[in-house]
Design brief:
single chain; alpha/beta; Aspartate Aminotransferase, domain 1; Aspartate Aminotransferase, domain 2; 4-stranded antiparallel beta sheet; globular; binds pyridoxal-5'-phosphate
Length: 365
Amino acid sequence: MLPVPRTNIEGIRPYKPGKPIEQVVRELGIKGPVIKLASNENPLGPSPRALSALRRVLPELHYYPEDSCFQLRAKLSATYKVDPESILIGNGSAELIMMACLAYLEPGDELVMSDHSFMMARIDAAIMNARLVEVPTLEYTHDLERMLASITSRTKIVYIDNPINPLGTIVTKEALNEFMAKVPEHVLVIIDEAYSEYITSRDYPKSLDYYNQNKSVLILHTFSKVYGLAGLRVGYGFARPEIIGCLGKVRLPFDVSRAAQAAAVAALDDKRHVVRSRQMNEAGKEFFYRELKKLNKVFFLKSFANFVFINFAVDSQEIFDELQRRGVITRTVKEYKFPNALRVSVGTPTENKRFIKALCEVVGS
Ligand SMILES: Cc1ncc(COP(=O)(O)O)c(C=O)c1O
């Protein structure tokens, strides 16, 4: 006989990450370089400044990290003009989503999100035995009006990933301002801006305004994307100190490693790396759009992030498998209810060409 887990755990399907290169090489025995365009990582790698900071911290790894992430919070405070008491660092922004669910969701409470949004909030709500209220997207992005209408007295959290993963589209400043003006005060609105540093559009919301207006928001950012530190796991959130205090109660001690803290502080100083990454991403997306337009029966969305959502006329699993056989790892998005689509991260120019060449071979040009 085995110990019995909580009943609601049974139905949970764990998060399925993009396949690591090592696994594909092991499983398929592929010779030659395999490229990964599956997890929206920065193809330029970490900033050189972050790497130097990492080297400096290596001899200190026998010490636990500073639990309060003092330096990183001070740096973020100066960068964003937000009080350090309003900043929480996490083991990736995914941990901060989980902390919010742990801190706020009683069994039967509701979490409202789009049906196609990033998976973690859905999983965390299930862990908490909360009721997930999924709202269909409208024209490939959040239907904020309908999300607002879905809020009840039991709603504790609304989760909005902006850009939405895996679609790459955004809700505009105007739309989000209107939503935030009407959202009831008992609701914590999580605005997940994992890809915001890639965005230069004036239509993109300035979500710190909501924090400055004392709204109940948790604004999430990460070092996993433009800063190229996904392997170290570090993300951060802005919220009123009362909210940060609640999240702090369910936080694991020392959740952000000494290495992660040092690298993140240095990465924030490397503006050049961010600009280069953004420029390469823009050029890569333009290349994708140009090439994808030439293909028959292929639909794609213009993306504000560092990945492109591509929908085919057929089940995407076979296309995924064929690309993988050619050493190109992409991402199916079936669990996001898109059985015919792939999400493809923008790589280096060489990687992008390799993906397009492989895709032409697979689907015909
Ligand atoms: C919208 C969104 N939020 C959060 C994350 C997770 O980021 P982190 O690596 O900081 O946990 C991702 C990762 O792909 C994402 O797409």
